[in-house]
Amino acid sequence: MTGTATTPTSPWYDPNAQVHLGVFYTGVGPQTIWSDPTAAEQMDISTFADLARLLERGLFDAFFLGEGLRVRENRGRVHALDVAGRPDAITVLSALAGATERIGLVATQNATYNQPADLARRLASLDLLSEGRAGWNVVTTDNAWTGENFRHGGWLEHDRRYDRAAQFVDAATELWASWAGAQTAAVQRDTDLVRFTSTATVPGSAQGRPVLFQAGDSAGGRDLAARHADVVFSANTDYAAALAYATDLRARLAGYGRSPDSVRILPGAMLVLGSTPAEARDKAEWVRREHMNPQRAIAFFEQYWGKDLSAYDPDGPLPDIDPVENELDPSRGTLAIDQRTGKLAQIDRWRAQAAEQGLSIRELALSIAGGHRTFVGTPSEIADTWTHFVRTRVVDGFNLVPYLVPTQLQEVVDTLIPELQERGAYRTGYTGTTLREHLDLPAVSRQAPIGRAAATV
Amino acid sequence: MHSPALFLALELDGPGAHPAAWTAASGPPDQPVRPGALRAAVRAAETAGYDLITLDDSALPPTGSPEVPARLEAGTRAAFVATTTERIGLAPTLAVTVTEPFHLATQLASLDHASRGRAAWVVAAPADAATLATIGADPLTPAEVQRELADVIAVARDLWDSWEDDAVIKDAATGRYLDPDKVHHVDFRGGRFGVKGPLITPRPPQGQVLVLGADDLGVTDQLDVALIAAADATGVGRRADAARRAGAPLVFAEVEVVLDTEAGPATARLAALDATTPWPGGRRLRHVGSAAALVDLLRTLAEHVDGVRLFPAVHDLDGAELAARVLPGLAAAGLHRPDRAGATLRERLGLPRSPSRFAADHRTDRDLAGAHR
């Protein structure tokens, strides 16, 4: 837990800075605890609608859906232990646009396995239907395993995925800006990565175009963010890392002639609240152990061993059998490129660590499990910490990754938001109607008058 | 063979089916892209008693709205009204030649979840140079289009079945959220693409989203509802019989509608609209006249088809007249039942809900062999 220093050490110190909050509802993976009796039904439209309305009551900026275009697997079969199965983000957010008034609606959509004009049109439709509340989290995929679900297969090499993403986003923004009523001209691209001719059919919304989110922490991702993004969704929630990230990003923005304030930094974060510090710590430990329960600990190492380890005791020592020699595959979800090789050496290091510290399978898994950093504390402590983070401008807020839906978020809305408001670090009412306004981002250039007319219904 | 009462569908895209409908529309020129107007129109259709609405679409600008050539993507429009309606079926047009098959299947399954079992799909297969240029692809030959259409419907149906109904088990004792034996790769191999599967979305509430398509697309055996565009009742009857023989469970006739309204008699209104932009006839059955005469025409059609899809020339005028006079007239005559029971569109249309084709006790030779068309 970062301290709650109040000294304005940051060169960007702003005593009036506000905490912006979104919820990043991944919908799959181990983050969401499904076994708790209060856990909401994953696919029920009411779960999504109730959640969006709850966040609207908490004056959140955005409700943000994840995406993955292949169901995760463990040794060739669908991975059984985590929540899996989710709806298309734009479809469910369009449904939510009809059921909410203010909350931003952000869809993660892939720039590798979509067509630019097709996706740009769907996003623009969501933006107009929600009267200027849409966002697009731009992601890429570089593995052929996911590509097996698509016409083009694994056609894009790692190094070129950001090239295509940059061209894709550039084309989409030009399509969005091109609407001029009956005078709309076709937009054309003809490179080896992006090729189309399309005339826009969707007028600009009240916010001009969808807000662009970008998550990449790699150099390519950061550069794409600095060129195009309105919001970055980094993983840096440790104060020092957040400061370094903000410094790097603002330098890159300057390199593209953009103002340092033209991008909001909203890292993904886990949060565990308790009414006392001790209760919060206990709850955080419960969450940690739910996330890495005995079955998941075994499955985690099965991914590395490439073998069935179900006969091993999670509370016993690491398997004594040798792993298969194949390197890791991406079927359990995103793997950073540097994690894909050197598997056997990694296993040797783990064996050494387990022997030295006397760790069981589960204890070792708990000690090496990654994921989003967790803020743990009372609402008052967290409000102090977050206020410090935003006033020193190392972040502009957070995208919360919930561990329990909806009860955890009810707790955030009911206990943490009032503490932030008391510190003058959180809005007490929506002042705008669009996602761009909620995020306090500079306006994009307005389009033809008919577009504005369409958005004033 | 079929119930005497007709199922009623309403095509709701744009200001109306007539290319000059915009000249007679009462709202502002951007009315078709106003979210509030869309919500009101679909709610009105539900209140009037229609069984489903269809939403036409294209990747190209609409030609019938010269002042505001705008149109929102149909799948998002259908989803938008999913939470503001209760029982009406929602059938967007999605093009198999434009959207990735995997995305298309995901979007429709998600619409079915969002609407609690009211999703349907009007299949379209535009293959002209301008449409395919929007995805940087080359035009397709008729044979390629036919194969593509068959492949995309087939893979969508496989993907909708890729999660069995009871795949999610939430078994705390074993830590298993789902039963991996009940979520399947589909290993589809088509003429021009393959899809591994499973879908990222669990099985739709209806099991299979309803598939509607024209009877002349060459995929009638893969449809739930064949749509017949024929110029007269005799032609409708002949084609309906052929569609049933080809395997379509339900057959709907397409009917263009110009009615006598307070704005003037139907013939005069049509002439005025045609003076702006002619509306070529001869493709679909067209009724020009009174509401009572339309009820009579539909009574005749009910001997041949299970339902009709109505195309009002001008929504604000003919659509209103349909709701005010024709639908009540049909209900009074026993030709329409707005109160059909059923939680889902499939149930209300009397179509069965099958278990997944991949379920252990439901496998066919094709599935066991892992071989696909």
TrEMBL record, chain A:
Q: Where is the Luciferase-like domain?
A: 35-391
Q: Gene3D superfamilies from the xrefs?
A: Luciferase-like domain
Where is FMN bound in this sequence? 108, 158, 162, 218
What's the EC number here?
1.14.-.-
Q: Mind telling me which NCBIfam families this protein's record contains?
A: FMN_nitrolo (TIGR03860)
Molecular function terms in GO for this entry? monooxygenase activity; oxidoreductase activity, acting on paired donors, with incorporation or reduction of molecular oxygen
Q: What PANTHER family does the record point to? A: ALKANESULFONATE MONOOXYGENASE-RELATED, C2H2 FINGER DOMAIN TRANSCRIPTION FACTOR (EUROFUNG)-RELATED
Protein name, please?
NtaA/DmoA family FMN-dependent monooxygenase
Keywords for this protein: Flavoprotein, FMN, Monooxygenase, Oxidoreductase
The family assignment reads: Belongs to the NtaA/SnaA/DszA monooxygenase family.
One Pfam family this sequence matches:
Bac_luciferase
- Which InterPro entries does this chain map to? Diverse_substr_monoxygenases, Luciferase-like_dom, Luciferase-like_sf, NTA_MOA
From TrEMBL, chain B:
User: GO: which molecular function terms?
Assistant: monooxygenase activity; oxidoreductase activity, acting on paired donors, with incorporation or reduction of molecular oxygen
Question: What domain of life does the native source organism fall in?
Answer: Bacteria
Annotated Luciferase-like domain residues: 27-216
Task: State whether keyword Flavoprotein applies.
Answer: yes
Span list, region Disordered? 352-373
UniProt xrefs under Pfam families = Bac_luciferase
* Basic and acidic residues: bias regions: 359-373
Residues given in the record as FMN binding sites: 93
- Return the PANTHER family for the record: ALKANESULFONATE MONOOXYGENASE-RELATED, C2H2 FINGER DOMAIN TRANSCRIPTION FACTOR (EUROFUNG)-RELATED
| Protein family per UniProt | Belongs to the NtaA/SnaA/DszA monooxygenase family.
Protein name in the entry: LLM class flavin-dependent oxidoreductase
Recorded source organism is: Nakamurella leprariae
